[in-house]
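Project standup — Tuesday

K.O.: blocked on the structure for the chain from last sprint. Re-posting the sequence here as requested.
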Amino acid sequence: MNETVTSPLSSGTIGVQAAAVLGALPAPVFVVGREDRFLYLNAAAEGFFAGSAASLLDRSLSEWLPNDSPLFLLLAQVRSRGHSLSEYGVTLDSPKIGTHFVTLDAALLADTPDAVVVALQERSIAQKIDRQLTHRNAARSVTAMASMLAHEVKNPLSGIRGAAQLLELNNEGSDRELTRLICDETDRIVQLVDSMEMFADSQPLEHEAVNIHEVLGHVRNLAANGVGRHVRFVERYDPSLPPVRGNRNLLIQVLLNLVKNAAEAAPSVGGIISLSTRYRQGVRLALPGAGEKLKLPLMVTVEDNGPGVPEDLQAHLFDPFVSTKPNGKGLGLALVAKIVHDHGGVIELESEPGRTAFMLYLPLFTAGED
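H.V.: unblocked you, prediction finished:
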């Protein structure tokens, strides 16, 4: 029979092995029972609440957080719905604990009525949220830049090109070669500006119910017959996944860009690209200034076994003109960030030597939407 660690509450028990595992975690983990009283805290949670377990057990969480704290709402929802919930971008603030920007993961504790185990992830998740805001700001900055370029650069370029064409008619030999060079370089600049103009499209997206697996299948076929001929594709799909709320063509553009990058990063021999989908119950994102939390339960992952993204570039990879490729323009992932943002979703990057994964979190389609 397994021993148990018992708090002052008779119902508050967890196994010794579970306590040992939770105690070794660097993130604060604690269990609350009826009236949200502490039943268990690991060492990190003791530090978070600035007290020892002996002094905290059987005391109410409300002594450390105000009654309107989002943590209490999350606890109530977990108990009423009976399943785990995760919430990103939550601010926990009180004079006793200070201000913390965290993610909350909460789940019912089996065999203990009303007990909920809560995990706080502060630094790592906060960094991810900061990156999401950076990606969105990057997309907005590129949009403004595109509008400026279109207005301030293309108009005079057309005049320069017209003047060069007139000069070309009246010159021969080397002079004609110079005017031809002016026209060619003008055309090249116009093409660059045109590539930036795609960021300036501020028209609302036409959303529909999109089968993400059909999109992934289409992208896989395109890549397998092109840039990804040398890699092996591995597909792990959740067949019960509901439709995504999105624009099919733009989602193809996003995933094709990610798969193309993965194929270029994967080894020429033994390269693998993994495409996967899953449903993340309860994933929500709270953004500063947003009226309500975004529910993003649909997760799509594009993963490769390449060398990884240099650590110093990871935080800036979605910024315009940042690229890991020698001749890359650094616009592809900036466009990906904009399109994902326009869908109300977020994109995350995890990378280390031998593994790079891009995770898209997207909203589901609700019947009755336009």
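K.O.: great, moving the ticket to review. Confidence is low (pLDDT under 50) at residues 1-12. The first strand starts at residue 4 and ends at 6.
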